[in-house]
Amino acid sequence: MSAVSSAPADTGPATSPSRDFGIGRRLLAVAGLVLPVALAVLWEWAAAEKLISVRLMPPPSKIWATMAELAASGELKTHVVATLYRVFVGFALGAIAGTLVGAAAGASEAVRRIIDPTLQSLRSVPSIAWVPLFILWLGIFETSKIALIAVGVFFPVYLGVAGAIENIDRKLLEVGRVFRLSRAALVRRVMLPAVLPEWIIALRSGLGLGFMFVVAAEFMGAAEGLGYLLVDGQQMGKPDQILGAIIAFAVLGKTCDAVLVLLTKPLLAWQDTARGTL
Amino acid sequence: MLNLERLSKTYADGTVALTGINVEVGAGEILALVGGSGCGKTTLLRLVAGLDTATEGRVAVAGETIVAPHPAVGIVFQEPRLLPWLSVADNVGFGLADLPRAERAERVDHALDRVGLAGYGKRWPRELSGGQQQRIAIARAFTARPKVLLLDEPFSALDAFTRASLHEHLLLLWEETKPTVVMVTHDVEEAVTLADRIIVMRPKPGRVYETITAHLDRPRDKLAAGFDKAKRRVLNALDRSLRPETPRPAGADVEANASF
Predict the structure, then answer these.
(1) Residue B105: which pLDDT band, with cuts at 50, 70 and 90?
(2) pLDDT, tens only, B148-162
(3) Relative to the CA of B71, which of A135, B47, B138, B187 has its CA 20 to 30 Å away?
(4) Could you check whether the bond before residue B203 is cis, i.e. omega within 30 degrees of 0?
């Protein structure tokens, strides 16, 4: 009873509401595991009862065994490292290029009018369409794969940065003007922090596309990588390996995104959003 | 301290926002601008702040013509316009980047104390209420120690109680350095509470309609007869200024300099 009436005497500031949901959020994170686990159990049961074709749809235990075998031999690590390396290098190149071009387009109306229509039409080219060209230009090895991934990462980052700069609140820029900030100081103290949240969102979608494009890249013909495991599984008739590789992609993609969120979280501590839960 | 000489502003689309404004504001004086919408009050402030340039005439602060934002001129906008990624303290000290850290911290703490938000320095702006945010904006403007401070309806979005307390905080800060203050308001009581002189403006095109000088002691007693009389005078002038134009015997640009 008294707990209800003794509301904090400090009337003014609202405390961050997100903190109150700490426990609830942890429960929700676990809740996310309920569906995959339930599906796996159901699948396992259906396979044991011979309700589904075990040859085409191997049960989770079989997939797990295959992956464990690959992991024990060190093969899985080789494939994961190869894929991650391609994603990271491609992501870094695409993100840098996307940020620079996006900044130019966002900062200058003229630049945007010149380059944006071309970039928008290139954006709608399907990723696979680049493959033959990149192989011709850059060869069959790493360079062409990384170039393809960089292309995939470039567009969302470019769009995000250009849009973010256009959307900077004029009213805040005016505050900078009132305090007579130099052009450089205005960029550093007002514009960069203002675009930071949207830039990070753009990087996240870029990273997601990086993982999509790495599969296309590894379909080009790779001797290692998770994409290679997919192709190899199809050619050798090993559905357990294909499913294992797909699950590995899901886990890697989610983990990389989570790491990116974690790394950038301190930069956005000032925001009042539920972003951390996504 | 602040001189507006034949000041006119016509926007690119042909709108005449201001025409022929001649006003002189003394050092330490608080001037309020009231008037119907579209009478150019905000335009006038933006010209003084150096955020816009006049079509004709000039703005001078201590004899110096204003062509761009000037260190001697500060402004508090209608919205707090705090930078959400800076702590409250960093927002207050935003204009003091050139000062040594210790001195900056001292000035920031002092200003926060004066607006009743001592100890709030480490918070984020989003954690504060609207009234508290506006106090931070006022503190930010004062810490830069302007000679002329412009207030563009800074209290209009707040409830009556918050507004009254902000008036006190504003006067407390003003007492310290006594800057010249030009404030735009649509609240006649606010104008009479704070200002030494009240200019009623008339729209289309924006110009000075009537000037009313208040000879009231500070702190002002809102229940005193003089306060009420001043308020009624301003309301009256405001009312007349909003009526369709009729030829005024003395001519519109002659200031009816009523004292009471």
Answers:
(1) very high
(2) 999 999 888 888 888
(3) B187
(4) no
Q: Mutation test of the interface with chain A: which of B78, B83, B112, B117, choosing the one with the most A Cβ atoms within 10 A?
A: B83
Residue A17, helix vs strand vs coil: helix
Distance from CA of B46 to the nearest CA of A (A): 10
Tell me the nearest-neighbour CA distance from B50 into chain A, angstroms: 8
Tell me the chain B residues in contact with residue A271 when contact means C-beta distances shorter than 8 Å: 84, 126
Whether residues A13 and B132 touch (CB distance < 8 A) is answered with yes
List the single residue in B with minimal CA-CA distance to A270. B85
Mean pLDDT lowest for which of A12-16, A24-28, A56-60, B140-144? A12-16
- Residue B126 has its nearest CB partner, among A194, A196, A272, at A272
Report the chain B residue with the minimal C-alpha distance to residue A193. B85
What's the fold here for domain B2-72+146-259?
Rossmann fold (3.40.50)
Smallest CA-to-CA distance from B49 within A70, A91, A9, A174 is with A174
Q: What is the mean pLDDT of chain B?
A: 88
Q: How far apart are CA B242 and CA B87, in angstroms?
A: 43
Confidence (pLDDT) at A11: 41
Contact A210, A91 (CB under 8 A): yes
Residue A129 is predicted with a pLDDT of: 87
Q: pLDDT tens digits, residue range B210-230?
A: 888 888 888 788 888 888 888
Inter-chain residue contact B127 with A14, CB threshold 8 Å: yes
* Residue extents of the structural domains in chain B: 2-72+146-259, 84-143
For B98-131, give one letter per residue: b (16+ CB within 10 A) or e: eeeeeebeebbbbbbebbbbeebbebbbebbeeb
**pLDDT at A5 > cutoff 70:** no
Is pLDDT at B255 greater than 50 in this prediction? no
Give B-chain residues touching A175 at CB under 8 angstroms.
77, 81, 83, 94
Interchain proximity A178–B75, CB inside 8 Å = yes
Q: Nearest residue of B to residue A197 by CA position?
A: B85
Go through the domains of chain A in sequence order and give each one's CATH number: 63-267 (1.10.3720.10)
Chain A, nearest residue to B128 by Cα: A13
pLDDT tens digit string along A209-233? 999 899 888 887 778 889 898 888 8
- ipTM for the predicted complex comes to 0.86
pLDDT for B248: 56
Mutate to test the interface with A, among B85, B92, B159, B165 (most CBs of A within 10 A): B85
